[in-house]
Design brief:
Layout: H1 19-22, H2 28-31, H3 39-46, E1 52-56, E2 68-73, E3 81-84, E4 99-101, H4 105-114, E5 119-121, H5 127-135, E6 141-145, H6 146-151, E7 160-162, E8 176-181, H7 185-191, H8 197-212, E9 221-228, E10 231-239, E11 246-254, H9 258-273
Parallel strand pairs: 4-5, 4-6
Antiparallel strand pairs: 1-8, 2-8, 3-6, 3-7, 9-10, 10-11
Helix pairs in contact: 8-9
Length: 280
């Protein structure tokens, strides 16, 4: 609206409930992974019921349905994970044997890597449900994306933040992306002025990295690309689900080669980890 000086009446917001929103009692890795957050929305795009779809980038599979593409990114929010606990100031301060709730395999594996003594349990539900469970004492702590808490103006619940140097975020964390039909020029023109170039460059590298590793909800992978002028640096990690072993990578180069940098980092980790790495 703002970019094109259009009235609110020029747009219609269609709320689509996805399978990922509705399945709350099982890990997503058991029932279909990331596509559960996009399938119903992409069906609506493909049959013309909607013209553009707004997603959390970290929910997006690396392979999209034919005819669709990520065509814009909004400026990226804070990428860090937030630590929430009434019992400790940081993850490392939690008492021995504490219980941490998380539905993310990446967070579960990285928590176990840093604190093998901690019991990590499955923790599904929307944000309000997770906060209520924490308050009621179902778990001693949980981790959530700081970006989501900032957008919902809930930063007051954050106990501390985990810096990327010790706890790499999920690929795409904090970035909202827009998906549309590649042959819909009118929508592409509408989106062009709000496409944030720095975020697009960073996410191009991160998604290329993830694609090489066949990243899904079944794989504990962290990755973050940063830009310093024209120089792009990507850091990545792959962790065994039980946290006992991890491999890390860092690759840098000109931002114009973002996709190649991401692919090279992914290939390096693939070679380091070997085919049986994720079998536990």
């Amino acid at each position: 609206m703002a970019a094109h000086d259009l009235p609110e009446s020029a747009f219609e917001i269609v709320v689509i409930k996805t399978s990922g929103d509705q399945i709350q009692d099982r890990p997503l890795s058991e029932v279909g992974g990331k596509g559960l957050f996009t399938k119903e929305i992409e069906d609506a795009l493909l049959d013309g019921r909607i013209d553009l779809a707004v997603h959390s980038s970290k929910d997006m599979p690396t392979v999209l349905p034919g005819g669709l593409a990520i065509t814009a990114f909004l400026p990226r929010e804070d990428v860090r994970d937030a630590f929430l606990s009434p019992k400790a100031k940081t993850l490392m301060d939690l008492p021995h044997g504490a219980v941490v709730g998380s539905s993310s395999l990446r967070r579960q594996a990285m928590i176990k890597r840093l604190r093998p003594d901690i019991d990590v349990v499955m923790y599904r539900g929307n944000l309000q449900t997770r906060l209520r469970k924490l308050e009621e004492g179902h778990v001693d702590a949980t981790l959530l994306a700081h970006a989501g808490l900032r957008r919902l103006e809930l930063t007051h619940v954050v106990t501390s933040l985990l810096e990327p140097e010790e706890f790499l975020p999920a690929v795409g964390q904090g970035a909202i992306c827009i998906e549309s039909r590649i042959d819909d020029q009118a929508t592409l023109d509408l989106l062009a002025p709000i496409d944030h170039l720095e975020t697009k460059i960073r996410l191009t590298a991160e998604r290329a990295f993830l694609a090489v590793l066949d990243g899904s909800c079944r794989t504990p992978i962290g990755g973050l690309a940063t830009l310093n002028g024209s120089q792009l640096t990507l850091k990545g990690i792959i962790v065994k689900p039980d946290g006992t072993e991890a491999h890390e990578v860092e690759r840098s180069g000109e931002a114009t080669g973002a996709e190649a940098i991401g692919k090279a980092a992914g290939e390096t980790l693939k070679a380091l980890s070997g085919p049986g790495f994720l079998a536990v």
